[in-house]
Amino acid sequence: MKAVSRMSSSPKGSKTEISSYQGVMVSFSITIGTLFITITREVGSISGMEAYIAVPAAYLIMTILLVPVFLFSSRFPGKRIGEYSQIILGGFFGKLLSLALMAVMMAVAALVLRNTAEFWGAALMPETPVWFFLVTLLILVIYTLMNGFEVYARVCQVLFMIVIGSLLFLVIASLIKVDLENLLPVFYRGWEPLLRGCLRVAGIAAQYAVFSAVICGHLRDARTIAATGLKGWLIAGLLLSLIMLAVQGVFGPQQMAKFVSPPLELAKIIEIGGVARGLEALLVSSWIIAAFLQITAYFYTTAIIMTDVFPRISFPTSLLIVSAPIFAGAYLVNDQEQLFALFPVLRTYLILPVAITAFGLLITVAFLRGMLKNGTPSGQKEREGME
Amino acid sequence: MMQKLAVFFVILAVILNITGCWSQKNMSDLAFVMGIGFDVPPEGADAQMHEYLSLQIAVTSAFVQEATGGAGGVAWVTSALGKGPADAEQSIARQIGRVVFYGHTAAILVSKERAEKGLRGILDAIERYPGFRRSIRLFIVDGKAKDVLEAQPKLDQISIAAMLRMVRHTGITYDIPFGDFVAQTESETIEGALPIAGTVPPGGYSTEKKEAGSEVGGGQEGGGAGGKQSGSDSSKQSQEKIVHMGGVAVFREKKMVGTLEGQASNGFLLFKEQFHNRIYAFETDEFGDMSVIIRMLNVKPDVNIVKGRLQIRIKTVFSAGVVHVETAQDFTDKHIREKVTRVLAGELADAIKQAVTKAQSYGSDVFGFGGQLFRKNPKLWKQYRETWPELFSNAEVQSDASGTIIRTGIIRQSSS
């Protein structure tokens, strides 16, 4: 009952409901966002020649991590992970689990914020200090979220079309420069490089699982969560695989691993008919939009989990509270190399284990308490009881 | 109130983020660099100064003058010494009083002498700087890079524009973007190669000048040009020169080790399938001097290691059209056409073999046979990669070609 009342007091009340299509577009903020900027280099340096296979393979394999999200969403319709974790594990342990998820998402938010600032500076405005980008992004993100989740969903709905369009254009425009020799031979070093690359992408699946477990509460029709979540994940996987293929096909694994941002280098060399060149500024602008949407998603996730854990804190207040450590974390990163070193550590050794542990624990306890049995969904039961 | 405050901050953020702020670039403060040249420092220069950098800078006011009918060069070349590329650039910035801007830089020229010392520092400086695109072109200059920057082509405003036209549109020289060259020099399975440029006097080749000791090679590919002037005369004379392209510079890792010229250079371009729609002229016993235009090329190399020795097999398939035959021929006769095809096939196969043999003498696998082996048999490659240069140098090369003569021009029989 408490959970239901909290839900109704969430930001902008009824405005928080979104359609399945909007849900897919919102999920792109985590599954695409600016991932292609860093993950191409990361997987390229780990998997080498197999990098272009590792990305689609990981996206397909890691779909398994989304199963608990869909399961709980069907058992607790309209509820977020911060709410149903308290129902399953009890108030104290549920809150503890939510806080752990909030902490890791906050850490990622800080890195994503700093990464965007670094990319913005390196690609477009090299003389501008980092703090300026951080503050600008922070203001924009807070302003957007203050207007409610549905506003953010509509922003994603419009802007991600531009981002996806820019990425598809990049892939198509680079096809002519792809050298198939950069894609062979594969598996000559065994399966290890492929598996290590997959593991890196698995961290992204963990991030997406946590985010999905938060936004599932906003879907107008909770039954569409599986379709929405899968579309968001697999379409992004396809797009990222195409980007990976284009980058590796043009530069080869060795060069790809050397660049700070392989897709940016790709954008710098594409041309149309030998006439239109220097299109990277246009593409990079759309990528910064994607970065803004990505940061917003992380801010929302951490802030909304906080309101679930501490119901007395309003959403705008929690947004301001999480902003401080995220900004500090982003600002305190010393340099680009430290940032690049932190990303894989965080994804592989923090988010992935935490997410697997959290969902594993929830499934086990829910199973033992008989909450996963077929029949009326648990959330439904509560709602009916309340009425 | 909260909303108004938020709107205010958003507007503020947008205002701060549009043109202006820290990263502003004012057109009138910039010196637009069109081309960059690297030479060895002149004799007597400070021993600590390892780099002699020249920048070809667009004289922006000259474009206005030209539009209004005024006179004056549209590019100015200035040079400076430095402890490295960046230091030399700073010296130039102190001369010109503007911010050096590389956003429009299209080509980088390095003299042979400088390239033989290794390009590591130059490549690093270019690759690291975000303003350069990986699609810019890198040329080796037979002579002084500064001379080529100062050359005044007759049909283009600046030498760099003429050079790019030669590379991109006429296809008369090896076409490789900077990024691909860097990738080659850093790869284990292929070595780098770059086109060679030089200068020649405008109006073609003069017998007098040839006798006077010019290196101009009578119009042959890779004949090389210029670069023989010395002292202060060099700069003045180069003003009267135009750009000439020919030959291919061969690298081992990042150091230039030799050149492919004449038929070897053609063979290299044939192997790289960059000889499309170009005239190939050669001398035959049967038909005298003849020329064909290559319309299609398909070169398939195959490598194998037999008893510790590398075997290279190159199969070329072509289609070509006859452009000129010295002796009268009746191309309606099938046997004549077949004979021409056989002669041309032998010529192309030989040119490719010459290119490989020449590269073998430098121990530089610019053809990427190592890559062929790597893709074919990664385990075998792993076994031999350490000794690849030696293996390549001692390889047995076999080159075959076959094809068709698809056209004989708009006449079928020569008049006797």
Describe the structure.
- The complex is a heterodimer of chains A (387) and B (416).
- Chain A has 387 residues and is mainly α.
- Chain A has one domain: Up-down Bundle (Amino acid/polyamine transporter I), CATH 1.20.1740.10.
- In chain A, 76% of the residues lie in helices and 0% in strands.
- With 416 residues, chain B is α/β, with parallel strands linked by helices.
- Chain B has two domains: 25-261, no CATH class; 277-416, GMP Synthetase, Chain A, domain 3, CATH 3.30.300.210.
- Chain B is 35% helix and 29% strand.
- Chain B has 15 helices and 13 strands.
- In chain B, the strands form two sheets. In chain B, strands 1, 2, 3, 4, 5, 6, 7, 8 and 9 form a nine-stranded mixed β-sheet that branches. Chain B has a four-stranded mixed β-sheet with strand order 10-11-12-13, with helices on both faces.
- In chain B, a hairpin with a 2-residue loop joins strand 8 (242-252) and strand 9 (255-260).
- The longest helix of chain B has 29 residues, at 334-362.
- Chain B starts with a helix and ends in a 9-residue tail after the last strand.
- At the A-B interface, helix 8, helix 11 and helix 12 of A face helix 1, helix 8 and helix 13 of B.
Please give the structural blueprint:
The complex is a heterodimer of chains A (387) and B (416).
Chain A (H helix, E strand, L loop, with lengths): L1 H7 L11 H12 L3 H13 L3 H11 L5 H9 L5 H9 L1 H33 L6 H17 L2 H26 L17 H24 L9 H34 L3 H8 L10 H30 L5 H18 L3 H33 L9 H9 L1
Helix pairs in contact in A: 2-9, 2-10, 2-11, 2-13, 3-4, 3-10, 3-11, 4-10, 4-11, 5-10, 6-7, 7-8, 7-13, 7-14, 7-15, 8-13, 8-14, 9-11, 9-13, 10-13, 10-15, 13-14
Chain B lengths: L1 H16 L12 E10 L11 E8 L1 H8 L7 E8 L2 H12 L2 E3 L5 E5 H4 L4 H9 L8 E5 L3 H6 L8 H12 L7 H9 L6 E8 L6 H5 L21 H6 L3 E11 L2 E6 L2 H9 L6 E7 L3 E19 L2 E17 L8 H29 L6 H8 L1 H7 L3 H6 L2 E12 L9
Parallel strand pairs in B: 1-4, 1-5, 5-6, 6-7, 12-13
Antiparallel strand pairs in B: 1-2, 2-3, 7-8, 8-9, 10-11, 11-12
